[in-house]
Amino acid sequence: MITTYTIKGMTCEGCVAKVKYLFEQHSNISTAEIVLKNNTAKLTMEKEIAIYELQRLFEAHPKYTITFPDTEENKQHESVFTTYKPLLLIFLFIAATTGIASIDHGKIEIMQWMRYFMAGFFIVFSFFKFLNLTGFSESYAMYDVLAKRVKVYGLVYPFIELALGVAYLTDFEPTVTYIATICIMGFSSIGVIQSVLDKKKIRCACLGAVFNLPMSMVTIIENLTMVLMALIMLWKT
Fold first, then answer.
1. 86 and 179 in one domain?
2. In the predicted structure, residue 150 carries a pLDDT above the cut 80
3. Is 74 contained in some domain?
4. b vs e for 185-205, b when ≥16 Cβ sit within 10 Å of the residue's Cβ?
5. What is the pLDDT of residue 110?
6. Are 35 and 87 contained in the same domain?
7. For residue 79, what pLDDT is reported?
8. How confident is the model at residue 69 (pLDDT cuts 50, 70, 90)?
9. Which of 100, 124, 168, 209 could form a Cys-Cys staple with 118, CB 3.0–4.6 A?
């Protein structure tokens, strides 16, 4: 595979020779074409190498730094992590804290962790929706099949999520809770999938109107993960 990078810190042909030499010391780099005028390095690699690993090649020469070039593709790739950072952090925090709470005799009880995770997910996500209930309702009605037709459903939905969170937390009627989750999240996924397939550029309302998260595959994965976990717990009941 061939990938082009931007190299900062090169000032002369001596720098070009040094950078080329350093790159070609890596066992997975077969050739390195360095262009001083554009400050670029075109690397032919046997397999993809993480950019931080490439930067390590310059540890003895810190004036050289390697970055991805400012192409639209790389900007888009980089923006995915920037855009969904709040969502990813919330997932990680919920997963970590519920994992700790599920430890029994030095091991994480998976079924208990899933129940706690679902509780944390629904409670935390409903909280963000309650911060601007009207804003959430308007955003949700842009893509949810039922909320489009019944406006009040968008106002009620955060209460449904909160109720599901409390039900998981208290282990209230597990079978009913699991089935309700499958139906609600599964039905909600229909509008999300349609919007993504139609490439509609609309806001995802998963975190209410607080964060401007675009609708994407991330939203589909989020919904279907909840459905899958509920199915597993229902099967294990």
1. yes
2. yes
3. no
4. beebbebbbebbeeeeeebbb
5. 94
6. no
7. 54
8. low
9. 168
- The encoded tokens of residue 195 equal 């919007």
Residues 89 and 205 in one domain: yes
Domain boundary among 11, 38, 69: 69
Mean pLDDT, residues 120-125 taken together: 95
User: Buried b vs exposed e over 4-28: b needs ≥16 C-beta within 10 Å?
Assistant: ebbbeebeeeebbebbeebbeebee
> What ranges in the chain are assigned the alpha helix state H?
13-23, 51-56, 72-83, 85-101, 110-130, 133-140, 145-149, 151-170, 174-197, 217-236
Range of the domain at 150: 79-236
- Which tens digit of pLDDT belongs to each residue from 84-114? 788 889 999 999 999 999 998 889 999 999 9
Q: Classify residue 72 by burial, with Cβ atoms within 10 Å: 0-12, 13-18, 19+.
A: exposed
116 and 217, same domain (yes or no): yes
Q: Of the residues 41, 69, 97, which one is the last residue of a structural domain? A: 69
